[in-house]
Design brief:
homodimer, Aldehyde Ferredoxin Oxidoreductase,  A, domain 1, 38% helix, Aldehyde Ferredoxin Oxidoreductase Protein, subunit A, domain 3, alpha+beta
């Protein structure tokens, strides 16, 4: 079997435009893979604790993984990471599209950006080289316009662009990084970090196919996927929002800033309605058969340009049900504003829902909102608020700081209405429906996050996920509204897998089994890898990110979720079903122990770090008196 | 993919000859597999702590694993377990041959024997049924004679017999169970348990081929093995004793009761010399291409019957170098006496070496030994002592109790010369050459043991084992004479694997990679298994056995090795190379932590047990106030 994975990392210092190329040894990639583990490695190695996330000392890392860009469904993603301006801890966002694969074709596994440019710049990376270019003329432009300008000036329409829009430039704390103008590395406010560096965009172009060690294996896997279209047909047909009505029926569709679990307007904002109304096309990411992306178009009452794709489930729930908006065109329009300006739809939705609750409770008044009647269900008000956030004007300037900081500023009852963990806005999944998911929000290194979480409902019956999970030793179904030791065990194993997937930067939507993912890695790298090795990469990512947060001063008390989740719904299918803080805290402690972390502090033990071949992290924590 | 592993367990109560058949659900097999994990499961569930290992309350379990008996190299083994009369803790021995495969063909994964027969009996198992039969006429017979008598009376020469000889009947504490008259389930004194139950033999016969879910996969693996004969040619050519001279050259050949690491007579007792002198044939186990077994023949000065096979490495070193005997024919004769009488060659060799040291130091005198000049190098004396042990006569009656009990009875300096851990005699591998191996002796649930241990020398250079181990995430070579955190990590992972192999009851000699073993399990069961799942089965075995020992009162202080190992050799290649108790103790503590055990007591934490889906074990330990 061929052996020898080769990867390169591009280093850019914006303070002097210096560009260098590093070529870490193969075992570096085998230990840290890419994405989350690789980003956390560099953040721990190269940042001083306590630095300002929006200062020049922060570093910004774009990273694929060892299988990014090989011709297989799910391999087109990339991760963008930095110290998060929302949480002050480890931050990353993941995004699909074509940019990640293009970066690999250009010869790089990752780009590490440090410093701050004096004037706006963008980075052009092509076939093994990088160049810092002036972006003064791009600054202030929305994403579509900026992408066109870059492609024009590089004389190449095939250039792939990751960029920020005006919200990133203005340091909206939950600004995201936009690929291909319609995919978002949404979470953690990485777009604000990019803005703080005055880095408008990273344009990449490569002409070398990504080497594959066992192309036949990839072909076999692709054929299997095409022969099993039924496994992803629903996702293809209705997109991620195709499951919205089921969540509503189960009583777990975030509604009215998480005060309710079902929404009368659910069907109106569902993937099925989208299909039947505004959908004009289905779109895909690099090499992917699933094609879960939406392309929507509308003209009145809201103008929606298909270039921006269409809203995902998270967007439909964040800007729809959770704000009680049942107008899909309004949601699609808001989605477009976010894509054009590089705003995380989850964070902004949760923030606006909070503002609406404040408004209805009189914590915010029309005087605060420039007269906007910021009530649940008012789509016009939502769009107005969104535009103010982009512009950082009026109430928008407050809300652009994120729900946690806005609530702190408002004071009084407001913080108890702010749905966030560690400063990151809660995504649109309900812990009262999925009990381990709540634990996942609490212990995620990035604050409330759904991408590497556990969705209990998928484990409570004979789903493909549960059948596949026998491979990990999880042999029986686990009731969704329970958080016992067995659930905690499954949660622990599965979130290690998610941490791995975030390090390999593989998409979770193609219905690959664990074994098939291992085959993909084997085919891409030639390594005789195993699910053990991959889970240990995931565990490395979990420990590196936690070590980063510990060094920044995070403590066990920060691993918590909003109190609202511990109050049972009073109506709907889950009315009266308890999600007890006591069970949550017991599970958290058990999770710490299962992870080999101190059961009180949640700090990784030296033994665990050594077990992961991360002795250097134990030393680093020791230098900072942890534990 | 077909799914549905079916297995049956035969239950025999010798006190009333009652026989029943159980059919545990598939997930039972997926959790506990067979061999060690299955045996430990039943010992924990069905024994009361503190019972006499040689009393009727003990249970005796013969077990294969889920892949036993499928047509692939390494699948012919079985395990025999019980509470050990040597250690008072968990005990098992593993053995090759054909018996294990035959048991599966007879329809059973395991046989559980309880009680004690009033008169000698044997058990006949054939095609789904069992029968307790009179064995009065077999009692006292050597193995070859007894096997012939059983086959004659069952009118079937293809019956496979696992049995004890006279040493087992007389409860020699290190009596073993003999398969096919020439393979030994050697360790832990399980043959004495069998003797205490008055169970002479278990004869099995089956006519149903073992179901295989993916026969083509097994064929491909077999073809790969045959195409890679160079990977096992050495083992085939010279047997396990083929490596004896290399150990001698490295300074790690146990010599003179572990006082020396090299032996002038090494070549004379090596596999190479065996090949060139007394070897008449090479033998194999069920379905195995390796054929590492020896068949030797001699007439003078020692009569050696080829029916008993030939000595393994352990035997050559135990009864050869460690007693300073350089006469291969004498070693082969002693090997025959052990096979005919069911004695563990390792234990008896280490015990006689101890007696020789005592004799030379005047702790034993000719008066104690019936005049035998029990000096190092005296082959005649060794054979005389061996015969006295079998007969439990004179000095033999003392030595039949095992080295730990014999030394205690002698008192004075004697215990410091007794090379054992937890009462089990040290096998023929040298911790001063292989530092993690010493840790392995200490923490093994069965006391000093080599079958599931770590052989540091194989990890210190680019061996196939090290290359394969990248699959577990062990990426770089590890110096043999070091016991740091990295070594402890590799030791921890690898011994989990060995615990798994002892649960699958697969042989470690066919050069299968980790991935290939997973393929074998997949092909045999239809389970989409993974190395993660298999290592967790191994971890389950490690925790079940430790929990059993904890319940029996074992404590951290019992996880120790003889002090002799911490004194550097004064001559030979390892002269002056330190193996420090300090490093050993630090590694032991780190190992406890890496295992999720209390770092002080070595007791599995409840969290670790829950992580392994062994909540019932946490409850059981809790009932006994542990921790």
């Amino acid at each position: 079997m061929p052996y020898g994975y080769i990867g390169k990392i591009l280093r850019v210092d914006l303070s002097d435009s210096r560009i260098t190329v590093e070529e870490p040894e193969e075992n570096f990639y085998r230990r840290y893979f890419g994405g989350r583990a690789l980003i956390a490695y560099y953040l721990l190695k190269e940042l001083q604790p306590g630095i300002d996330a929006l200062g020049p000392e922060n570093i910004l890392i774009f990273a694929g993984g060892v299988a990014t860009g090989v011709p297989i469904s799910g391999s087109g993603r990339n991760s963008v990471g930095a110290k998060s301006p929302l949480t002050g801890g480890y931050g990353d966002g993941e995004v699909g599209g074509f940019w990640g694969a293009e970066l690999k074709r250009a010869g790089f596994d990752a780009i590490i950006v440090k410093g701050r440019a004096e004037k706006p710049v963008y980075l052009s990376v092509a076939d093994g080289h990088g160049e810092v270019r002036d972006a003064a003329h791009l600054w202030g432009k929305e994403t579509t316009e900026a992408q066109k300008a870059i492609r024009d000036e590089l004389h190449d329409d095939a250039v792939r662009v990751a960029q920020i829009g005006p919200a990133g430039e203005r340091l909206v704390r939950y600004a995201c990084v936009i690929n291909d103008v319609n995919r978002a590395a949404g979470r953690c406010g990485i777009g604000a970090v990019m803005g703080s560096k005055r880095l408008k965009a990273v344009a990449v172009r490569g002409h070398q196919p990504v080497p594959v060690k066992e192309p036949e294996a990839l072909k076999r896997l692709s054929q299997w996927l095409l022969a099993n279209r039924d496994l992803f047909q629903g996702l293809h047909e209705n997109g991620t929002a195709g499951g919205l009505m089921a969540l509503d029926a189960a009583g777990g569709l975030p509604t009215r800033n998480f005060m309710q679990g079902s929404f009368k307007g659910a069907e109106a904002i569902s993937g099925q309605t989208m299909r039947d109304t505004i959908l004009v096309k289905r779109d895909t990411c690099f090499a992917c058969a699933v094609a879960c992306k939406r392309v929507v178009k509308a003209e009145s009452p809201y103008d929606v340009d298909p270039v921006y794709g269409g809203p995902e489930y998270e967007t439909c729930a964040a800007l729809g049900s959770n704000c009680m908006i049942d107008d899909l065109k309004a949601v699609a329009r808001a989605n477009q504003v976010c894509a054009a300006n590089s705003i995380d739809t989850i964070a902004v939705g949760t923030t606006i829902a909070f503002a609406m609750e404040c408004f209805e409770k009189g914590i915010l008044t029309p005087k605060d909102t420039d007269g906007i009647e910021l009530r649940f269900g008012n789509a016009e008000a939502l769009l107005q608020a969104l535009n103010l956030i982009v512009a950082r004007k009026g109430i928008g300037n407050l809300l652009a700081e994120g729900v946690a900081r806005a609530a702190e500023k408002l004071g009084g009852e407001a913080p108890s209405l702010a749905m966030h963990v560690k400063g990151q806005e809660v995504p649109l999944h309900e812990p009262r429906l999925k009990h381990a998911l709540g634990l996942g929000y609490a212990v995620s290194p990035t604050g409330a996050d759904h991408v590497h979480n556990f969705h209990d409902t998928a484990w409570s019956q004979e789903t493909k996920l549960l059948r596949d999970s026998k491979t990990l030793g999880i042999l029986e179904p686990l009731p969704a509204q329970r958080l016992d030791a067995r659930k905690t065990r499954a949660f622990t194993y599965f979130t290690l897998w998610r941490h791995f997937m975030n390090s390999a930067v593989l998409c979770i939507f193609p219905p690959w089994s664990y074994s098939q993912v291992a085959e993909i890695i084997r085919a891409a790298t030639g390594w005789d890898t195993s699910i053990w090795e991959l889970l240990k990469v995931g565990e490395r990512a979990a420990n590196l990110t936690r070590a980063f947060n510990v060094r920044e001063g995070f403590a066990s008390g920060d691993d918590d979720i909003p109190d609202r989740f511990f109050h049972a719904f009073t109506e709907g299918p889950l009315a009266g079903v308890a999600y007890s803080r006591e069970a949550f805290l017991a599970a958290k402690r058990l999770y710490y122990q299962m992870m080999g972390w101190d059961e009180e502090t949640g700090i990784p033990t030296a033994a665990k770090l050594h077990e992961l071949d991360l002795g250097w992290v134990a030393e680093e924590l020791g230098r900072h008196g942890k534990p």
